Amino acid sequence: MILLSWRNLKGLINRADVILEIVEARNPLITRSIKAEKIAMGLGKQFIIIINKCDLVPLWVCKEWQNYFKAQNIETFYISSLTLTGIKKLKHFLNKNIVKRPATILLIGYPKVGKSSLINALKGFKSASTSPYPGTPGYTKNLTLYKIMPGIYIIDTPGIIPPEGDDIEMIIRRNPVEKIENPIEIAKKIIEMIQKFNKNTINATYHIQSIEPIEILKELAIKRGWINKRDREPNVDEAARTIIRDYLRGKLVYYVLPNDFK
Question: Is 74 domain-assigned?
Answer without folding.
Answer: yes
